[in-house]
């Protein structure tokens, strides 16, 4: 799954000797400190974002070395003309007592990037120094998105991102770093939202997403009808069972529970007319004194 996440740029300026040595490890010739301009980026973190997603700590650690040497572009346009800078060092930062929105120790992946001090880059450098160019968006891929409530694949379980379950807000945990594509300067801050970056495979991804949404709706309906038909049933157990069923099984159980619920909810008449013959003395017994 390809994703985009917000990041923040901070100007540094001229690199020191140690920083320059790392930069020269990526350059084709020995560069002088006065030839390059450096800045730091907060690439991604483990906090829950506006789309109710977050990276897990292990994935941040996995992403750190993968970002070294990755180029920065503009607006996710993968073109050599748009290459402006390159990351030469990364580090996962945390342990200062800061907590995430849901109470976990806050950690983020920090990157250091450099660009050449050329006439073409002068305007961009000035915008970074002036705080105009602050946000970037990173493009990478993870192996799976896990539900924070039940630990299953998000989309395979019954839980919805942003919904509360037993006091816990459901979010998607981005797990298993698979690839890093680029980081990009953007005119408007990148939304903290999972999304496909490459156009290839987009139709298949959309179809898969719709299929997951359909199955999730069936699982919710099965749990709903089961609770009506069997009020004493444990909802969490029903959700676990629903998560393991396919379309046919879900539809069958929905029909079964719906029939039982209809029978339970069907109003009963107090007086009946017609039908079998009842002796007069019994039929009128309720009115006799």
Helical fraction equals 25-40%
Secondary structure class reads alpha+beta
* Record field, number of beta strands: 11
Strand content: 25-35%
Order of helices and strands: EHEEHEEEHEEEEEHHHH
State Rg.
Answer: 29 Å
Summed up, the domain count is 2
Describe the structure.
- This protein is an alpha+beta fold and 289 residues long.
- The chain has helices spanning 17-24, 57-67, 122-129, 202-229, 235-243, 247-265, 280-283; strands spanning 2-13, 36-45, 53-55, 71-74, 85-99, 105-116, 135-147, 164-165, 168-169, 172-185, 193-194.
- It folds into 2 domains: 2-142 and 179-198, no CATH class; 206-265.
- It has a 7-stranded mixed beta barrel with strand order 1-2-6-5-4-10-7. It has a two-stranded antiparallel sheet with strand order 8-9.
- The protein is elongated and about 85 Å long.
